[in-house]
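Checklist before submission:
- one chain only
- standard amino acids only
- sequence pasted in full

Submission:
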Amino acid sequence: MESKNNFKDENVEVLNIQSEYFRQKKTNINKRSSIEFLSVLPKCIVIGKPVRQSELVYECVNTHETARLLFGSLCLLFFHVAENSDEYAKFKLDHIADRFPKFTEYINQHETTDSNQYQIIKSFETYLVEKGLSNQSVHSVFYFIKEATKLDVLGLEQVEKIKAICSATKLIPIETEQYPLDKWFTEITWLRGVMSAKGKSSVYKRLASPKLLMKSFNLVVSEIMFFLQKVSRDFTDTLKSNGFNPEQLSIFDKMKSPACRNANKLRVLLSSISKGQQKMLPEHIDLLIFDWISESVREKVNARLRNENELIKRNSEKEGGDLWFNKGVIFDEKFLEQLFDHLKDNQAPYPVTKAEEICFYWLNCAQTVQASDALTLKYSDFVFHGSSSRITHFSCDYYKSRAHDFKFTDSIDASSHNGKAMLNFLMNRKDSESLLSLNRNNVDRASSSWKGVLGRTLQIAFLPFVENSIRQEIKHSKCSTLFLDLIQCLQTWETMKSTSWVKKQKEKGLPHDMEAYRKATRYWAPNQWFTGSMIKTAAVHSDSLNFRVGTLVNYNSHTPETEQSDYLSSNNQEHTNTVGRMMRLVMEDIETVAYRPNHEEIESRLKERQARTELISGTTGKLESLNLSNQEEHDSQVILNDSQGDVILVVESTETVVEFLHYLEQAKTHYSLLANRNPDFLEKHVLPTSEWMDDLLTYRFSKDIKTKGYEAYENYKSMLPPLFFSQLGA
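Returned file contents:
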């Protein structure tokens, strides 16, 4: 039951209970064991600012003791989180408040009795399902009520009652669909239009292939991580060579203002690396300036450092006023603590930024390590291969908490992009108790802000030196710029964050849900960044096979012969049923897989090849991407500047038509033999290539070129060499 300011008496009661609750908390702040539980639980709650702009009242009119206990527990948890907001995430209070409308509506219509009181939460699930709603809300209520049992204000009997209800409640699991990284990008619907307008339509279409996305993702993240490592080491070694003593910064500790302390310390550090016997590389200093200096004065600070001028506290009015130092996000206080520890003790590891840790976490998720376990990896979880002088490969052999078993990843080449970056990190941190200091809030619940550490980490890719290095590696590795271009498009075009929009809507008393935000904002931003689970799922998809050969293992104490003669007989009904089920599966598998080509794999390979194909027109000489409309065609200069290392160039010419027709004719001729002698080659190469060639001939080549090509093929086909000799074993 919901109303606005209609219950004066109830409001007084609610405020009395709230004040009593807060009074006990303040009085017994340091006496946890002596807090007395409330004799009366709240049966009404007023929710206003800062959660709601206008006050809303929710009242429990159900008179049964158990119903009031659950409603009151939810109210008490809300009071507790509101009073201790610093200890919880910002969205926690909103999340609890959002549960009251449906739960109050349900609890007031539920006929609670002593016989059904232990099924009251399960009945809430049934109530929601019958109304066609998701059971997400009941899972949240269930979690919050369990959490309320930890509050000191509930009595022992009340806690035991709630625990008994929770034990008797078996909810239907929330149906979760797989959510890979490529889906996170495709749901940002405006990305496609913007990238097409910028001549990047062919790049965006590569998003249809998780394999291409993950290859691009691994390269970009590895390059960011490798650059962070070089900057960290250069920064440390420069200070060490110049004899920098961390104690000289202690004079600023007496300053009352944290901003002044921070600005003075960073000023001294920047001066120390730009003067003296050794200097940091300019591109490495650029990253420090990017993190520490406000955007409006970065060029000025950079010029001063290059000219070895002092970074004085106040510049002349002609130069634009004060220098403003930001609080470090990448090179933060924890990084500086590690840095000073290394300067005092050479045996200590090099300092590691939180951004480098995030990259290491992402790369492990890209190796299909479970996201929750990737945060807790230790050096001992990695197995190294090679000689005593050089590591050539390494892999991760870790304990998967959900499976309660050990799992291992594929081996990583130590000379590859991600191999070099990850190995450097592991060698530097091998003596540390834990590899990462991250938690789930840092990486999997991070708000999609460019000011946070995750957003700043991605922005490193667009520093001039780093971006140039990444694009060169993309060409060298025959990779795509897909991930880099997607992030750059997000950074350039998104207009207003959801948090800012929601705040303005709340002030006006207007709808502020995500659906309304996306409708009102043309270039909207996701509420949160992509997570490790999304990366892991995309990595699995990128390397998945529809069929994998398994092994049958006999775990019994007797031999397989004894199993067959004595146990696997018609007297064993379970065995008979199992044989029947297995036979049906085997026959279905033979019918649909063994004697038929894998259509999904053929279609996947075809789409991937089409996404990479650029056609050089025989009439205009221009480059044209496949599946582009007239509005999306661009001149060759635009496409060439796109610099996709994995592009397949096809010249629209008579010779190409002859080549395609000959390949298709040979494929038809030898199809049956290939199916018997080399089915894998037929399925993975001949069929996708034939489909790709046929599509080009049918829909892409001009009529004049095809006419000339068909005439030329009829004249020369008797002289063309036969194909597939080696594949046929001839």
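Reviewer check: The first strand starts at residue 2 and ends at 3.
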